[in-house]
Design brief:
Length: 533
């Protein structure tokens, strides 16, 4: 298989070490905003109003992605003050990446991996417990005490209201452990393979850590046209001899873990193994229909060869829908010595190399101690940034206030248009025209809800002039070889961002078209799933 992207090991070590890439001051300010959990629409406004260009290095781009900043926002920052830039080199590389991925797919091979990153260093065996998660994940989110249990929420959930686990920035591969989720995030080795995700009524998606490794802790549904998966809730435990426990109760193979249509993500079978399946997830307005037309998959999990497997969906069903074989990969342990860098899953030669430490059930420390340590460490480090604390604060507040007004107006306009379309549909006698009007009303309802979700995020966000721990440390090592220079690496990363940005921009029109193609029997606007996606 032709190699397009060089596998680069990029490190992000806790502690403000010397940055190997020269980041512009404005890039540092953008990173501070992203780490503060600002809504993506505010970031967009901040970029538009910035007086200077954003000279984003490879390290900056990877860090922004790990913080959950959408690729379209990063792409806008790269093109800021250069809106007509074509970047023929990046376009050429992007075209080659797409063509090669297409050829590899046709041949039944795995697509080439992205630039690889590492988020932390392996601890000593005596420190391999849940406390290790606290330090490794802290730069990428916040630890919250929810009902007496410390849970983690990624920064990505705060930046993008439609973020969800096992959905954004990752993909499915068939492995000797069953269906395995391969995350694009530097921190993805932990929350998608240990512990359980849940959607909190006010905070959104959160992760509760646990000690058992699995290829993906999800439940499955199947139907004629769509397959779906949902994160298994907390207090769900699998015993290889007995089966599933929910809390302290052993449950049967027909127990659905109290999951509903709002918890599942549905895609056509042919898109299940796509590199970016998120682009094909059924919009929330159609998820209930998909749920009704699918059935819960029993006995998804098993115990083979001394480990847990998640077979979930039949491989031959996916292969038939894709009109090509599904290539199975072998999961190989990334056996690291203490202090070595943790990489996210590396796909190479039909092997998936993953860091899978044995997490001891020791009583974890309080994560606030980790935060105190990082605050002290950051306080002694020089703070970068083009603007003074007050100037940066003013720019942040101006961007937030302008975006809030824009989102409120957008919600108002979409709501008015929805009402107009519903009124027109009610008076229409032609069934086809009435269905079309109802579908357009659903689209406007979805847009209004999205705008309201952004507005709610913006109201909750409070910019801070003192952002001592706002920036994820960027001590990045990009291996230089005779084959690839740092400049070429920059071109590759920019091309990757541009491809992802195009996909993100195409997502909303694709969702609208799906609603138009399959009008609902009744308007399902207003359901809570819109908060999640």
């Amino acid at each position: 298989m032709k190699k397009i992207l060089l596998s680069a090991c990029v490190t992000l070590i806790l502690g403000f070490a010397t940055n190997t890439g020269a980041a512009s001051p404005d890039a540092d300010d953008l990173l501070k905003m992203a780490r503060s959990g600002v809504d993506e629409e505010v970031l967009s406004s901040y970029i538009d109003a910035a007086p200077d260009t954003f000279d984003l290095s490879v390290e900056d781009i990877i860090t922004l992605k790990d913080l959950g900043v959408p690729s379209k926002i990063i792409s806008d920052a790269l093109r800021h003050k250069h809106p007509n830039e074509t970047d023929s080199a990046s376009a050429s590389v992007a075209s080659e990446i797409i063509q090669t991925a297409s050829n590899d797919t046709a041949a039944g091979a795995q697509p080439p991996p992205d630039i690889l990153t590492a988020a932390a260093v392996a601890p000593a065996p005596t420190d391999q417990n849940i406390s290790f998660f606290y330090e490794a994940l802290y730069p990428y989110g916040n630890w919250l005490n929810i009902d007496g249990t410390w849970c983690w929420q990624p920064n990505a959930m705060v930046v993008s209201p439609d973020w969800a686990p096992y959905c954004r920035h990752g993909h499915w591969v068939d492995s000797d452990y069953g269906w395995c989720w391969v995350s694009d995030y530097s921190w993805g080795w932990a929350p998608f393979h240990y512990g359980r995700w849940f959607h909190h009524r006010t905070r959104g998606w959160c992760w509760m850590p646990d000690t058992e490794w699995g290829p993906a802790w999800v439940a499955w549904r199947m139907g004629d046209d769509y397959c779906g998966w949902a994160p298994l809730p907390p207090h769900t435990r699998y015993d290889g001899r007995a089966g599933f426990y929910f809390g302290s109760s052993l449950v049967g193979d027909d127990f659905e873990f109290n999951l509903t249509a709002d918890d599942y993500f549905f895609v056509p079978y042919g898109n299940f193994c796509d590199r970016h399946p998120w682009g094909h997830v059924v919009p929330s307005a159609r998820a209930r229909d998909a749920y009704r037309n699918t059935s819960f998959v029993r006995n998804s999990y098993g115990f083979e060869g001394g480990h847990i497997v998640n077979r979930g969906l039949p491989v031959d069903r996916i292969s038939k829908a894709m009109s090509r074989p599904v290539v199975q990969v072998a999961i190989v342990n990334d056996n690291l010595r203490p202090g070595q860098l943790i990489q996210r899953g590396l796909l190479k030669d039909n092997q998936l190399v993953m860091y899978r430490p044995a997490i001891a059930p020791a009583t974890p420390k309080n994560p606030t101690a980790i935060k105190s340590m990082l605050v002290k460490r950051a306080a002694s480090a020089p703070q970068q940034g083009s603007a003074s604390g007050k100037a940066l604060l003013n720019r942040q507040q101006a961007a937030a206030q302008q975006t809030l007004r824009d989102q409120q107006q957008r919600a108002k306009n979409a709501g008015q248009e929805k009402n107009r379309l519903e009124k027109a549909a009610a008076g229409e006698t032609d069934s086809k025209k009435r269905a079309d009007l109802q579908a357009e009303a659903e689209i406007q309802s979805s847009r209004a809800q999205q705008a309201r979700a952004h507005a709610a995020n913006i109201k909750q966000w409070r910019p801070s002039a003192q952002q001592k721990i706002a920036v994820v440390p960027r001590s990045v090592v990009v291996p230089q070889t005779s084959a690839v220079s740092r400049g070429q690496m920059q071109v590759q990363v920019r091309a990757q961002i541009q491809n992802e940005a195009r996909m993100e921009r195409q997502r909303q029109p694709a969702m609208d078209q799906m609603i138009r193609s399959h009008p609902a029997q009744q308007n399902s606007a207003g359901r809570s799933q819109d908060k999640k996606r």
